Amino acid sequence: MRIRATSRPSRTAVAATAVAATAVAALLGGACATAPLAGAAPSGKPRTVVAVAAENGYADVISQIGGRYVTVTAIMSNPNTDPHTFESSARVSREVGAARLVVQNGLGYDSFMTRIEQASPSSSRKVIDVQRLLGLPDSTPNPHLWYKPTTMPAVAKAVAKVLTHFQPAHAAYFQRDLQVFDASLAPYDRELARIKSAFPHAMVATTEPVADYMLQAAGVDDMTPWALQADIMNTVDPPPQGVSLQDDLLTGRKVGALVYNEQVTSSVTEAFLKLAQASRIPVVGVYETMPTPGYHFQTWMLAEADALYDALAHRTSSPKL
Q: For site-directed labelling of 269, which of 1, 124, 160, 319 has its Cα 20 to 30 A away?
């Protein structure tokens, strides 16, 4: 069983996402009916804050908080490309150089942003580095911070603060959108709690640490050795002993699912995928970049959490060590 949570979702994921999308739309519509999520200006054309986010998940949050008062560009927005091999361009440099608000992940994931900012310094530019915002050391091993459930509320709060700095007259507007955003994360939080309650200490294997923070929040144990995940993430050939350990998890059916990074694949990860399928281990496809169109950050995370629940619920036998 292969469960893709996003660009090619299962029926279960589609249903959950539709419900979540309706809930998010209702919340957003009720609290800021005149504020398009894309940040476009309505007929009144109010002056907007030009913002750039390195990753499109962060860009989506900026749009939700800033509404009509921001114009947002996402640098990395293609879920079909490897974000680790992204190369900047003159266009990206111009966009970052012109931005008043910049949001970037940090932890080396988007280091090109720092290089651009240093090459075109601006005293009026405000940069939200999520690593620094969360107080994480450079040695933090997993850079996929948007999968940590506490990350986006902190980012949204910081965005509202910066936008208020630029446009104090609209402080109440930004605070209202911040409250709406926080409330719209409730379905995702409930789904994580449901997984934790229904499958305490469920065991899974992974190809990379993309969704590891989500797994931890859901009380799911990742049995894949960290060294193997890190090697695959960093495009390093893993040692045979690490591959053998992963093979044993799958062939021995010791895990309830394989959480598979659909966005970055190799001969090694494809071999794990085939082994999981041959062993009747459900596969949950996850992404590093938010699939678009059709998703906001909340519905993307909810769809992936729902796909994880679905995989664990449909496992063909109880995993055992």
A: 319
78-98 CB burial, b ≥16 within 10 A, e <16 = ebeeebeebeeeeebbebbbe
Nearest to 105 by CA among 296, 279, 289, 235: 289
Tokens for 197, please give them. Answer: 């309650």
Q: What angle do CA 115, 119, 122 make, to 5 degrees?
A: 110
Phi, psi of 2 (to 5 degrees): -120, 120
Show the DSSP H helices in the chain as ranges: 11-31, 56-66, 90-98, 111-119, 130-133, 151-166, 171-184, 186-198, 212-217, 226-233, 240-251, 267-278, 297-313
For the chain, the farthest-separated pair of C-alpha atoms sits apart, in whole angstroms, at: 63
Quick one: pLDDT at residue 292? Answer: 83
Per-residue pLDDT tens over the stretch 132-148: 999 999 999 999 999 99
Read off the pTM.
0.86
Q: Which contiguous run of DSSP H or E holds residue 50?
A: strand 49-55
CB 245 within 8 A of CB 222: no
- Domains of the chain with CATH codes: 2-18+187-313 (3.40.50.1980), 30-185 (3.40.50.1980)
Which run of H or E residues covers position 127?
A: strand 126-129
Report residue 289: phi and psi, to 5°: -110, 135
